[in-house]
Amino acid sequence: MMQYVGLDISLAEVAICVVDEDGTIEFEGTAPSEPDAIADWLLERDVHAEKVGLEIGGLARWLYAELTARGLPMICIDPRRLRALTKTMPVKTDRNDARAIAQVIRVGWYRPVHIKSPVSQELRMLLANRKTLLVKYGDIENEVRGTLRAFGLKLSGRIASGHFEQRAMELVENRPRLAAMVRPMLIARSALREQSAVLHKMLLDAVARDDTCRRLMTVPGVGAVTAVTFLAVIDDPSRFQHSRDVGAHLGMTPRKYASGETDRNGSISKTGDALMRTTLYQASLALLTRSKRWSTLKAWGMAVAKRRGLRRAIVAVARKLAIVMHRIWTDGTEFRWTREEAVA
């Protein structure tokens, strides 16, 4: 008889539920959130699982890889579809969540999540850490500007990063109490700037070593950050049967509601990776407003801007960029500026 296992993961413990092919619960329990502990728990009860399901989350990628290496048929599922089921539960507990995952795995009502390679996960960590440092850097700078403004000391306008600290200390030169309060903030800002530069250098080194990144950067508007982000998010281009599917995967296609006589399209779904979507939006804006050389893609985007406005055109071109970048990756080619060049 086939058995199906649901794992609900928390930081310390994993709730485990084993059901048979009819949905009857055979075993339930908990184990520490360690691969060996989970595998031993199943082995002690002689569970021969047809499928083992868990939701994507903090520890999910690590447990997925480790348990797969131990021979378990792991499936990582999208929690959005499962959430519709767990909302109907009057009592929500880890035990009930494990039961729901096991039943969803049994009936096949799930969408598997692609687990990225270790290289892609490292690149994503690099991008996330770099962004965090840059955001905190900006927050500290804005905090200094705002607090000094309360005393009539204005750090207005655009100030070069290297001159900001000097300018701030000049303003509080005759106010020792304010200077003592501002100085720690400026030291922290300087440290964040230095360390973000270290991570940015690591990002540029990764681009220089990767041929795919260099080919992606032949697309106008696409720089090092956009290329690395695309590699980290997509990971394996072969998992998309058609390049046009990438736009929908990144949440850049319209929502649709059709029921009875109602049929309407909404704004983009925004269901994909937010960092990738933001980066593509910035690349699209650069292509339409800063790229001096004309291309078929820019001409198409400007035509959309005339009909629907610049904001919609930026989103549309961002979706096109994702499609073009995926095709460049799979074909091993570079960006083609004109239709004639593409035909040739």
TrEMBL record:
Pfam families: DEDD_Tnp_IS110, Transposase_20. It comes from the Bacteria. Residues 213-294 form the Transposase IS116/IS110/IS902 C-terminal domain. Residues 5-150 form the Transposase IS110-like N-terminal domain. This is IS110 family transposase.
